[in-house]
Structures are given as structure tokens and as C-alpha cells.
Specification:
There is one protein chain. The chain has a single domain, classed as Up-down Bundle (Four Helix Bundle (Hemerythrin (Met), subunit A)), CATH 1.20.120. Helix 3 packs antiparallel against helix 4, helix 3 packs parallel to helix 5 and helix 5 runs antiparallel to helix 6. It has 6 helices and no strands. By secondary structure, it is mainly α.
Length: about 170
Amino acid sequence: MLPIAHLLLNGAWKAALVLIFIAGISDAFDGFLARTFHWQSKLGSILDPLADKLLLVVLFVTLAYRDIISEWLAFLVIARDVIILFGAIAYQRLTRDLKIAPLLSSKINTALQIVFVLGLMYHLAISPLPPNLLLVMQVLVVMTTLYSGIAYVVCWLGYYKKFQGKQTDK
């Protein structure tokens, strides 16, 4: 993550693009192997998405710092992740029953964030993309970021209400 941030800060767009692409491919391959050979673990189910999110946070913060993207977009992406993290911690403390399972909307959001960053890197490193394409990608990131953040809150509230019902039945 830090080498990618260093490359972005210094405008080494092609090298950053290559490293981000390698990080994405290796993450997908790692997930494929874990599912295929049942190499999944509770620790891995926590660390893998955290590493993905940390990379995306570093990318969005660095891109905002370089004025490649708006600061509000970086803030939105980070705020969603903070809400999810603190929501998970609160839910675990209240119920002692947190199961790590990303929502489909979160997976879509993460994929769109990665595609957006790769598109920006391609735009900067290789060939300019049509401005409308970058705008559509950004809008999709904003929409899925908002939707998935709200979906987690709604999901946890629903689980918590069910948990409260179980507690009163005892």
C-alpha cells in the first residue's frame, strides 16, 4: 500500500497502475484459492476485507491529496467504511454474535471503487478516457457507496431487533 501511495504522490502513474492491477488480481486469486480448496479461516475472513479497504482508503486519500478526485468523494468512501467498522464493533458488543459476511451491495461497491481507480490510473498513465465515462464511474461509486452503507445499517438494525426478540423470549 505504501509503495502505491509513494508512486501516486510522485506522479508515477504507470507504475502505480501496474501495482494496483497486481494487487487486485492477487486478491481475486487468493479468494478463488481459499474458496476452491476451503482454505478459509475466521482470521482470513476479517483480514482480507480489511486489507482491501485499507488499500482503497490509501488510494482515495492519496488521489484526493493530489487533486485527482474531489475530497468529498474520498471522505464519502472513508465515512462508509468507518460506519461499517463501528457498526460491526457495536453489533458485536451488543449481541456477541457477529458473523463476517459482506453484503452483495458491498462487493459491488468495492468492485466499482477498484474499477474507478484503475480507470483513473489508465486515464493518467496511458490514454485519456472520455470525461463522461469517468463521471459515470464516479456517480456509480457514489451511489453504491451510499446504498451499501445504508444497507449495512438497515441490516444490523434488523438483526439487532431479532436479537432483542430472542432475549425477551428467554
